[in-house]
């Protein structure tokens, strides 16, 4: 995680993406440029070559590629990250995401047990 992160977005430092095209065509010069579209909270927005996890105070519309989104039940973890932390993403099915959200909601409502973990095959790892 980059040190210049906040509620607008968690900036990530990592490998530069390999783009399938040389530029954004009529949408702009960089290959990450597309025509304006809506952004969801938790989207992974490629602003140029830097991925940014869009936060609750982030933009709601823009012209950059957003290839994935953080599932709602895992977004609370974004607020726990600090500069230098490592984040690893795993793909979840819609059924896994829904089950995780249901279990998280139940744990919060009842205040029993602990928050559920992702399936082993889909954990978001945090290392300091």
Which labels suit this protein?
disordered C terminus, elongated, single chain, 128 residues, alpha+beta, 1 helix, five-stranded antiparallel β-sheet, two-stranded antiparallel ribbon
Helix content: 10-25%
Distance between the termini: 10 Å
| Beta content | 25-35%
Order of helices and strands: EEEEEEHE
Radius of gyration: 16 Å
- Main beta-sheet strand count, sense and barrel state: 5 strands, antiparallel
Structural class: alpha+beta
Q: Helix segment count?
A: 1
Oligomerization state: single chain
Number of strands: 7
- Tell me the strand order in the biggest sheet: 1-4-3-5-2
Describe the protein's architecture and organization.
With 128 residues, the protein is of the alpha+beta class. Helix content is 13%, strand content 27%. The chain contains one helix and seven strands, in the order ββββββαβ. It has one helix spanning 94-110; strands at 9-11, 33-38, 43-47, 50-54, 61-69, 86-88, 125-127. The strands form two sheets. The protein has a five-stranded antiparallel β-sheet with strand order 1-4-3-5-2, with no helix packed on it. A two-stranded antiparallel ribbon has the order 6-7. Strand 3 (43-47) and strand 4 form a beta hairpin. The longest helix is centred in the last third of the chain and has 17 residues, at 94-110. The protein is elongated, with a radius of gyration of 16 Å. Mean pLDDT is 86; it is low at 120-128.
């Amino acid at each position: 995680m980059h040190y210049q992160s906040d509620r607008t977005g968690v900036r990530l430092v990592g490998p530069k993406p390999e783009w399938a095209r040389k530029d954004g065509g009529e949408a702009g010069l960089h290959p990450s440029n597309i025509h304006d579209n809506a952004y969801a909270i938790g989207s992974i927005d490629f602003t140029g070559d830097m991925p940014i996890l869009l936060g609750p105070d982030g933009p709601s519309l823009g012209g950059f590629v957003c290839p994935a989104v953080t599932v709602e039940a895992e977004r609370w973890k974004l607020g726990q990250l600090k500069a230098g932390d490592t984040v690893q993403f795993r793909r979840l099915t819609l059924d896994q995401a829904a089950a995780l959200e249901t279990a998280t909601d139940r744990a919060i409502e009842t205040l029993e047990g602990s928050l559920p973990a992702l399936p082993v095959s889909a954990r978001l790892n945090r290392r300091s």
